[in-house]
Amino acid sequence: MFSLTQLEESLKKAYRAVTEGKFGDGLTRFTALLHTIPLLVVDTRKEVDDVKELISIAKCAPMPHLRAVGVCVPCHAVSPSPAMSTSGSQQR
Question: What domain count does the chain have?
C-alpha cells in the first residue's frame, strides 16, 4: 500500500529529473507515479482532492519539456482510470 506522502515525494523526484534534463527518467517516474495511484488508499475527501490534483500534475507536467526536445506526447494521452472516479461516493 502507498501513502499520499510517498506519491508526493515521487512527484518531486520526477520533476527534479525533468528539470535536470533527464527526460527519459522523468517520464518513467511520472508514468510510474500514475500507475501507482490505483493502489493508493485515502480516507478523506481532502485526500481524494489531493490525489486528483496529483493526477492532473503528473499527466501534464513533463509535456512542455518533452515537446522542447521533439517528443510529442499530448497531455490528454494519459487519463485516470475509470476506477478512480468518485462519482458514486459524492453526496447528492
Answer: 1
Is the pTM higher than 0.70? The answer reads: no
Q: Which residue in 48, 21, 71, 66 sits closest to 40, CA to CA?
A: 48
User: Is 37 part of a structural domain of the chain?
Assistant: yes
The helix (run of H) or strand (run of E) holding residue 16 is: helix 4-19
pLDDT tens by residue, the chain, 92 residues: 788 999 999 999 998 998 898 888 988 998 899 999 998 889 999 999 999 998 888 887 666 555 555 544 445 444 444 444 444 444 43
Domain presence at residue 13 = yes
Full residue range of the structural domain in which residue 24 is found: 4-79
**In this structure, is residue 24 part of a structural domain?**
yes
